[in-house]
Structure formats: structure tokens, C-alpha cells
Amino acid sequence: MTALQCRDVTVGHAGVPALDGLSLTVGAGELLAILGSSGSGKTTLLHTIAGFIPPLAGEIWLADRLVAGGRRTVPPEHRSVGVVFQHYALWPHMSVLDTVAYPLRRSGGTRGQARSDAAELLGDLHIEHLAHRRPSELSGGEQQRVALARALARHPAVYLFDEPTAHLDAPLRGVVLDEVADQRKQQGTAALYATHDAAEALALADRVAVLDHGRLVQLGTPTEVYERPASLAVARLAGPASVLAAEPGSRDRTPRLVRPDWVGLDRASLGEGGAWEARVTAVAFHGPHTDYRLETEAGELLAREPGPARFSAGERVRWSLTRSWPLADASRFPEASQPATDVPKLA
Ligand SMILES: Nc1ncnc2c1ncn2[C@@H]1O[C@H](COP(=O)(O)OP(=O)(O)OP(=O)(O)O)[C@@H](O)[C@H]1O
């Protein structure tokens, strides 16, 4: 059973294409993450599915109902979608409790029941204390959680989330992500979840659709997208990436993607372990793990180990690879050998 289908959807903003012949399907109960950098078309896609933007071409189906395409355009309020967008669009005159109770009442609940269910949802999202405030009295993150509660209260056929954790700090992010996961488990509702945060997409999604300049460039499970990206651009979007000119010791000259967790490190002084030598050029301790920048003969490499730092900058280490992945298109980008990382270079 299919919850949502986009068939060859093309959308333009003032004549400039923002989505280009995009096709994808979301199964019943599936969470599909839309991963893409800023401007890749994530919001445009969600707005088109919600009915705020008409497609120039193509069709959108919600379950077995055509909602956009041909001559048909079903208005947003008649599409069974629950939206949580970056701009939360809360009703300024309504209290938080009434905002969340409203969709519950519209779906047939009594006033008392709707308010009590709404209060429970607010509790789940840790905002019960805000029940009687209006949107103008809330922070950005609080407004975002109210918008999420309102969408969850609608019990729609499909959720559309556009970076719903963008204004939240790490612990609140966890609360919101847990709530999204719980609600979906209970209701079995399909969801599209747009984000530029690879970690979030990989952790939450059943499958990940990667957008680049309005085109779908890869669709796969989180593991496929992380371990076997279709291009250098996808490799970089899906997580920390180093690109070696070639795998050391191999005749194959295809550039290789190396994720930091694919690198094993040993002390050079022990003269054993890893196959090749490198120099540590920078170290960044992140709490649960430590990242190292390495200068190797095949290029710069990022390595990650659990726990505190075992090596210091300047030290020589031996390293080995548990795996690597060929990235043929990386040879066209000389800058690919610079790992995208938050481990600062030393002067
Ligand atoms: N109202 C608009 N008018 C003109 N161009 C627009 C409009 N909205 C978006 N665009 C353009 O369409 C493209 C896709 O934008 P979109 O907002 O869908 O990207 P996004 O992936 O959601 O980005 P972000 O992560 O920054 O929100 C961009 O090039 C953007 O500049």
C-alpha cells in the first residue's frame, strides 16, 4: 500500500526550476527522510505535496487519490497531511491548548475530550506549562513544538516535517524525535522528513532520498546512502567523509571514500597493527569519541575512535582500513581530498 506518490513532479519559482522531474513513493507507515543542502528543493517539495505550490508538471497522489496533476488541484485543507514547517504559522489569537485541541474537535471529539487529549500531547512534548499562552509569548523552539503537537493531533494520512528540530537544543531534539517516532509507531502514519542533518536522517528514516539542485540523486536505506553513496556530493551530505586519491597499495586509481569509523589506528612505536604510516595533524575530543586528522601518502584522512584521545598532534601512527568505497566522480574535484570536518587544522 502506497501512502504518497510523486510522479515526475516539476516545480518552478518565477520560472526558475526548483524541482526537476522528481519521482518517489512513500509506503504505508514509512518515514522517508529528504536529505539535501540548503536550496536543494526540500521545502519546495513539501509545500507542493501540501498543496501550497502547484506543480508545473507531474502528479501527486495521496494513497489512491490524485491531489495534483492534470487539471486536478485539491486545496491544502482537503489533503490529509499534517504539516510542521520551519515557519510554524500558528494562529495568533489562539492559546496553545486551543491550537492543539482544534484539529481534535474537527475530527469529531467533544470539547472536553479534545482539550484533555491536547493537554496530554503537550505533556508528551514537555510544553504543558505553556497551555494558556499565545504564540507571541513563545520562543521559536516552543512554537515549533506547538506546531508539532497540532500536526500530531490531526491524525493525518501523511506527515510532512520540514526541519522540525531546527530551533531546538540537543536534549529537546531528542524529545521531539522520540515523539515523532512514538506517534508514527502508534498510528502507523507515513512521513516525509526534510533535513540537512545527515545524523538525524540516518537515525530516523526507513529510507533516505537525497536531493541536489531539485533532482533526486539517490534513494536508499540509511546504510546504503552512508556506505555506498552515488556521488561525492551524496558522500559529503551523508556524513563526515575523506577522499583518498586511491587506496594505498592498490593498482586501482579510483578515488576512495573513507568514513572516519572505517579507519583503525595503532601506535607507530609498537611497529605493528595498521598497514601504513601517517602523522596526526589535529585532534578533536567530542565526548563519546575523538576525531583525528591524519596526513597520509594518499591524502588527508579523518579517523574516529570511541573515548578520549589516545594520540596527540604531531605523533606518528599506523593506520588501516576496514573498508572504502569507490567514488569515480571525485577525480573531477581536486578539492575532494580536503575532508569536510570540524577538526580544526593546526597552524
Ligand atoms: N518563493 C520563491 N521564489 C523564488 N525562488 C524560490 C522561492 N522559494 C524557494 N526558491 C528557490 O528554490 C530553490 C529551492 O528552495 P527550497 O526552499 O525548496 O530549498 P531547501 O532545500 O528547503 O533549502 P533550506 O534547507 O535552505 O530551507 C532555491 O534555489 C531557492 O532559492
Automatic annotation (TrEMBL):
GO terms for molecular function: ABC-type ferric iron transporter activity; ATP binding; ATP hydrolysis activity. Keywords: ATP-binding, Cell membrane, Ion transport, Iron, Iron transport, Membrane, Nucleotide-binding, Transport. SMART domains: AAA. InterPro entries: AAA+_ATPase, ABC_SmlMolc_Importer, ABC_transporter-like_ATP-bd, ABC_transporter-like_CS, ABC_transpr_FbpC, Mo/tungstate-bd_C_term_dom, P-loop_NTPase, Transp-assoc_OB_typ2. Residues 4-238 form the ABC transporter domain. GO terms for cellular component: ATP-binding cassette (ABC) transporter complex. It comes from the Bacteria. CDD domains: ABC_Carb_Solutes_like. PANTHER family: SPERMIDINE/PUTRESCINE IMPORT ATP-BINDING PROTEIN POTA, SPERMIDINE_PUTRESCINE IMPORT ATP-BINDING PROTEIN POTA. This is ABC transporter ATP-binding protein. It comes from Actinospica acidithermotolerans.
